[in-house]
Automatic annotation (TrEMBL):
This is tRNA-2-methylthio-N(6)-dimethylallyladenosine synthase. PROSITE patterns: MTTASE_N (PS51449), MTTASE_RADICAL (PS01278), RADICAL_SAM (PS51918), TRAM (PS50926). Transmembrane segments: none annotated. It comes from Staphylococcus arlettae. It comes from the Bacteria. Its main location: cytoplasm.
């Protein structure tokens, strides 16, 4: 190539680049003009006075019914049970549109990433996942990639995706899952990224279709959102204000699950203890709901998560009656030091937490208590951290989920100066985890020689001649038994306790599973 040709060729390349850049800018501005509805954490923080509207009219419009025929979908789920359950609803909607589920990401026609915003590392995982899908979009431009869940509610995340992840076709939030058919249609028709995120929560939408992940255990949402605004937490921003479902809708759903043969349900909410407070005209709380559900013939009922602040005596009484409400309470404490609890905005003290624990233990002597703890809160001192350790010793939790504090943009704690170095935080987490392991192992070892009731869920991951399942206190048990026991509650004699699981010998199918209170 001579000098002239070389010059011409580089002009061509530059031309191409310019054209591409011009097109991209045009496309990008198009999002803002037509499609892009930016979420706003500031808006999301506002709590209006208007009461919750219940939408009972959800149905799949006729025009969307065949949208998914001959197409497949895959949903990757991060985060908590709330997200896992939202995934079941999205799978329900997609199935109603005619899509088939697949496990193969390389052939899926719709790929949804249901994201979690709770800590920075949760978000990083999602970004690397979306990055990994870039090649897939190049090879199969017709495949649709969607980002949904809690990260979609953050403006910084939406802007980052718009700027750097052009392989994404749609972003939608936690409040408009029911709009999935319309969002998909727009994504098929539009070349630009479809962004539909509502900063303010909408109605409580009933009658959404669901494809549940299993036929033994089921999630049941009893409320959405959170108004607690713990200073570190992004959830009140990503999930909106507290909205309770009507008792009759919940009870009907649970009755339906009982009829279908489900053995266990978990009632879900970010703070289930607030259940019912927002429903006008009735005086009905979680205690009442638990009492009504305890009359339904379903062997096990769990609920999560309980904020220690508004755990009522009524609730303790109902759990103490036994019946189908399991003797396991997850009661996140976060810290054992009053000053830290205060700046966390948790609204209880070490003393009042311990009082509640004592009350629970007195009323329900065989209760299993588990918790969540954050270490390395901004400016947490060594002495304050030691108080978390000593609280752990006092309560003797059977297990804990432990985290290093992660700064979340838009939360009050993000403005706090933090003088605790990362390696100190890591060392605290390690010290705490040592304690957690010690008490978990101790709790497990108590079962050796005992007979426990296990809800048998399937074969063990490692050995398919071994069945596995959980006790009412959520201990994993492995044992050999006929496969016909899957889905049943069985008696198992524990032979060996390990750190996170128990090994045992099958005795028989449990004779009596529900004791009516
Ligand atoms: N609604 C539940 C908690 C949901 S988030 C409750 O209040 O109990 C689950 C756990 O994640 C929290 O209990 C807390 O321990 C942890 N967490 C939340 N925000 C965090 C943050 N910014 N950094 C570290 N851990 C956090
Ligand atoms: Fe977050 Fe606190 Fe609400 Fe739990 S109660 S979701 S920690 S704000
Ligand atoms: Fe994560 Fe949202 Fe749950 S931030 S923990 S998925 S409510």
């Amino acid at each position: 190539m001579n000098e002239e040709q070389r010059k011409q060729s580089s002009i061509n390349i530059l031309d191409e680049r310019d054209k591409k850049a011009e097109k991209e800018t045009k496309d990008y501005s198009k999002y803002f003009e037509h499609v892009y509805q930016p979420p706003s954490l500031k808006e999301a923080k506002k709590r209006g006075k208007q009461s919750v509207q219940y939408n009972d009219d959800f149905k799949i419009e006729e025009k969307y019914r065949n949208m998914g025929l001959g197409r497949t979908f895959l949903i990757k789920t991060y985060g908590c049970q709330m997200n896992a359950h939202d995934t079941e609803v999205m799978a329900g909607i997609l199935s109603a549109l005619g899509y088939q589920a697949t496990d193969d990401i390389n052939t899926a026609d719709v790929i949804l990433i249901n994201t979690c915003a709770i800590r920075e590392n949760a978000e990083n995982k999602v970004f690397s996942e979306i990055g990994n899908l870039k090649h897939l979009k190049r090879e199969r431009p017709d495949a649709l990639i969607g980002v949904c869940g809690c990260m979609s509610q953050e403006e910084s995340v939406v802007n980052k995706i718009l700027k750097s992840y052009q392989n994404v076709d749609m972003i939608f939030g936690t409040h408009n899952i029911h709009r999935l058919p319309a969002i998909l249609e727009e994504a098929y028709l539009s070349k630009a990224m479809v962004v539909e995120v509502w900063s303010k929560e909408g109605d409580v939408v009933e009658n959404l279709p669901k494809v549940r992940a299993g036929n033994i255990k089921a999630w049941v949402n009893i409320m959405y959102g959170c108004d607690k605004f713990c200073t570190y937490c992004i959830v009140p921003f990503t999930r909106g204000k507290e909205r309770s479902r009507r008792p009759e809708d919940i009870i009907e759903e649970v009755r339906g699950l009982a009829r279908e043969g489900y053995q266990e349900i978990t009632l879900l909410g970010q703070n289930v203890n607030s259940y019912g407070k927002d429903i006008e005209g009735i005086d009905y709380g979680l205690g009442d709901l638990l009492e009504d559900i305890s009359k339904i013939d379903i062997p096990r009922v769990r609920f999560t998560t309980s904020h220690p602040w508004d755990f009522t005596d009524r609730m303790i009484d109902i759990i103490a009656k036994g019946g189908n409400i399991v003797p396991h309470i997850h009661l996140p404490v976060q810290s054992g030091n009053d000053a830290v609890l205060k700046i966390m905005g948790r609204k209880y003290t070490r003393e009042s937490y311990l009082e509640l624990v004592n009350k629970i233990k007195t009323a329900i002597p065989d209760i299993a208590l588990t918790t969540d703890i954050i270490v390395g809160y901004p400016n947490e001192t060594e002495a304050q951290f030691e108080e978390t350790l000593s609280l752990y010793d006092e309560v003797e939790f059977e297990h804990a989920y432990t985290y290093i504090y992660s700064q979340r943009d838009g939360t009050p704690a993000a403005k706090m100066k933090d003088n605790v170095p990362q390696d100190v935080k890591k060392a605290r987490l390690q010290a705490l985890n040592k304690k957690v392991s010690y008490y978990s192992e101790r709790a497990m070892s108590k079962y050796e020689g005992e007979i426990v009731q296990v809800l048998c869920e399937g074969t063990s991951k490692r050995d398919d001649t071994v069945l596995s399942g959980y006790t009412d206190k959520n201990k994993l048990v492995n044992f050999k038994a006929p496969k016909s026991m899957i889905g049943k509650i069985v008696d198992v004699k524990i032979d060996e306790a390990k750190q996170y699981s128990l090994n045992g010998t099958f005795v028989q199918q449990t004779q009596k599973t529900v004791v009516m209170p």
